[in-house]
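Render this sequence as a predicted structure.
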Amino acid sequence: MNRPEAIVMGASAGGVSALLSVLAPLPADFAIPVICVLHLPDDHDSQLAEVFTRKLRRPVREARDKERLEAGMIYVAGPGYHLSLEHDRSLSLSQEERVHFSRPSIDILFESAADACGPALVGVLLTGANEDGAAGLACIRERGGMTIVQDPAQAQVSIMPAAALALHRPDHILPLNGIGHLLAKLEAQKC
């Protein structure tokens, strides 16, 4: 695989600590943009970007409509909006119906990013309490991207990663620390 153009990550229940565990081992000069969807309630502002910035000491911001991807940036979806990646590598926010009771939806991000990036995409699905993300991860695989699923036996809530495994065989099934180290190797083109 060539160096990826983007990494998309999805999580639900237990997702804050899971995302932090995966993102923490990335080197300071990690240049691949990372786009994260974590299921959030619609009724209040998210502090996710601020928490991640403090904990990771890396540039993190809530995704904005029509903003183009920047190298090294970690984007997080805000509450109440689906987040998509467009072919021109810009982000798009929308308020279509919920998917698996969720907005933002992991499937919507994963499917749009698979269409935009094809084989230059890495998809990562982590802990969660519903099946959102499973179909989107299968779509990434169908378009030639790399797929990574958290080992369900080590997930705080195994429903989401187990749903992904029921749909397709990912390239990697790993514990959280293994996912972060794999992503760091992809950046360095060592795998």
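Summary. The chain is about 30% helix and 20% strand. Residues 106-117 form the longest helix (12 residues).
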